[in-house]
Amino acid sequence: MTSSPPSELQDRGSQYWRRNIRLLLGLLAVWATVSFGCGILLHHFLDNYTLPGSEYPLGFWFAQQGSILVFIAIVFYYAHAMSKLDREFDLEEE
Amino acid sequence: MDVQGWSILLITLSFALYIGVAIASRASSTKEFYIAGGGVHPVVNGMATAADWMSAASFISMAGAISFLGYDGSVYLMGWTGGYVLLALLLAPYLRKFGKFTIPDFVGDRYESSTARIVAIVCAIFVSFTYVSGQMQGVGIVLSRFLEVDTTTGVMIGMGIVFFYAVLGGMKGITYTQVAQYCVLIFAYMVPAIFLALHMVDTPIPQLGLGGTLENGTPLLANLNNLHQDLGFASYTSGSRATIDVFFITAALMAGTAGLPHVIVRFYTVPKVKDARRSVGWALVFIAILYTTAPAIAAFARTNLLQTVSGQAYEDMPEWFNKWETTGLLVHNDLNGDGLIQYTGPNSDVPNELTVHKDIMVLANPEIAGLPNWVVALVAAGGLAAALSTAAGLLLVVSSAVSHDLLKRCLKPDISERDELRAARISAGFAVCLAGWFGVHPPGFVAEVVAFAFGLAASSFFPVLVMGIFSKRMNGLGAISGMIAGISFTAGYILWFKFISPESSKAENWWFGISPEGIGTLGMLLNFLVAGAIHRFAPPPSHETQKMVEAIRTPGSTTK
């Protein structure tokens, strides 16, 4: 690795941090949409529909099972995307 | 073999397993005692976290609570899993990079203040103790019901087991016994659930059974809604709580989960930042197996209960009915003297004659469904695994708060490694005994306080940790005033409506219609606001601290 002047290092550091913040704000938006949105605020409206291919009222499903499945996807996606970001910025641990 | 014989056999086998694992993984240094040496594989840590997290309440009470609450029970399902998203995105990786032993470590170092450290120590001990007494009580109830010993003996046996592996093995011993306990508890939870699902909706996957169809062709949930309507209960899938209250309770449980010290500390035990991120995902997978099954068990149990007892003759009740009556958790009062059981809800003209405690639903479910004796006994072993694993994790937080945060970091910084390890063991042993005492003599308010531990964690720890990581400008003054404002507001509101003036605890008196269970969310917002306003009156943190914040934000870099 070539040695960079400190200010450039700092820029890269804050660029990495900005990318991280953007990613996690996006994922928190998904987190809030499935739980507070579909599971709570839109629950009665969504209950007029069923989960395709089953008998679940859709809002009830989001509240009791669906949001949990999306949470798992969010956490693994974040771990995956951050590992990629670490590699891009050369911040992987030994 | 009868239920008691099977119970003795399965419980003894599971205890022998935990002791064997504990002997194989003794701790020999403080690093092993506090964080298992920091070399735990992320999947293993995920499994241990799941056992650590899922308490007697998750195992025994949650499905029962959902069974009675219907949609309103979703607050627990979303709240106690959604917190892991916050943990994964906002806390775990950065605290792992920080790389010390405890939460007060982080709070004290980041805010350069021993006041903040002590506030954090007190919060950690308070939250952990209220929680742990509930676990010990759970152990006592399960052992007394299934082994037919008295509750005190039951608690003593539980204490002995926890004492053995928590004091001997510290975090290292706890981690590997928790893995064993996870396997026991999830097996014990799933087997009856699978039997029930096959029996009721003809599918071997209980999670899918919730959306399944009964033998007579009606969907399970639609059938349940009809039963509820006929008997005068609120609709199962709609619930009766106000939307704003559901919203605030869910948020408080989420932030509280992310702020609980015994969960956070588990992510100090993995080798790298990358592992911490993945490990949260695995923890959530292992938790979700139980948490997506619970609502299915709830609906099965509700249907079973209504069909078995409602409108039936008291004389024709099966054996389990009378057995649970003797524990006082099931009470039938034949008001109109017709010999039938009228089980009705608040919207019915017929007075209700049956009260069923929510804890029965999971424990008695196999009997209600007529499952074999070994399945019934398995549930007892699983309940014990859930209670013991959580108790051990909490006791470790208490012991490290005393030996590490208080003794080493505040009172006697020059203490030797050997003495600190001895102090850690002594305080763990002392904490076990105290928890046992609370288990035998439960203060009447334990159950209530446990529920509010989340509100308190949400309004104190969670904001302070998040601001410590995401704001470089936040300083000790801001953090301390935020914590004090958040926790005193939340505690005050809870105390008022639960203890001082419980008769006024109704929706029309609550602020914005938020119940005491959900007020932690407002306390958390207050914490953020106060900290944001007050921190301007003091200078920003020192250069070193700002460097430290930069360092914990980036995984690979080192602080030089």
Average pLDDT figure of chain B = 87
Structural class assignment of chain B: mainly alpha
- Widest beta sheet: strand line-up of chain B: 1-2
Q: Could you list the spans of chain B in which at least 5 consecutive residues all have pLDDT below 50?
A: none
Order of helices and strands of chain A: HHH
Spatial gap, N to C terminus of chain A: 15 Å
**Count of helical segments of chain B?**
22
Shape of chain B: globular
Mean pLDDT of chain A: 88
Distance between the first and last residues' Cα of chain B: 67 Å
Q: Report the strand count of chain A.
A: 0
Oligomer: heterodimer
Q: How many whole angstroms does the radius of gyration of chain A measure?
A: 19 Å
Largest sheet of chain A: none
How many domains would you count in the coordinates of chain B?
Answer: 1
Count the DSSP helices of chain A. 3
Total number of β-strand segments of chain B? 2
Can you tell me the overall shape of chain A? elongated
Strand content range of chain A: under 5%
Keywords:
heterodimer, A: 94 residues, mainly alpha, elongated, B: 560 residues, Sodium/glucose cotransporter, 2 strands, 72% helix
Give your account of this protein's structure.
The complex is a heterodimer of chains A (94) and B (560). Chain A has 94 residues and is an all-alpha fold. Helix content of chain A is 76%, strand content 0%. Chain A is built from 3 helices and no strands. In chain A, helix 1 packs antiparallel against helix 3 (58-88). The longest helix of chain A has 36 residues, at 6-41. Chain A starts with 5 loop residues before the first helix and ends in a 6-residue tail after the last helix. Chain B is an all-alpha fold. Chain B has one domain (3-317, 361-553): Up-down Bundle (Sodium/glucose cotransporter). Chain B is 72% helix and 1% strand. Chain B has a two-stranded antiparallel sheet. In chain B, helix 11 packs across helix 18 and helix 20 (476-500) runs antiparallel to helix 21 (519-534). The termini of chain B are far apart. Classes of the chains: A mainly alpha (94), B mainly alpha (560). Chains A and B meet through helix 1 and helix 3 of A and helix 5, helix 10, helix 11 and helix 13 of B.
